[in-house]
Amino acid sequence: DIYYAVRDTNGGGVKSVTKFTNGVAGGNGYYYPALTALNGNRVLLAYGGSPGISYAVLDSGGNTVKAETSTGGSGREPDVTQLSNGTILLAWTSWGTGLYEIAFAVLDGATYNMVAGPTTLSNPASVTGDNYVSVTADNAGHAILTWIDSDRSYHPNLYYALVDSSGSVLTDPMIFHTSQATNPYIETSYEGYGNTSYSLITPTTGDVDTWVTGVAPGGTAAIPASVGNYGLTPATAIVLTATLDSNLGYTGASPAPISVSGGTIVWNLANLGFLGNGQVILHTTVPSATIGTRYPVTWTISSAGSEYNSADNTITTEVMVAHQIFLPLVFRNY
Question: What DSSP string describes 62-85?
Answer without folding.
Answer: S-EEEEEEE-S---EEEEEEE-TT
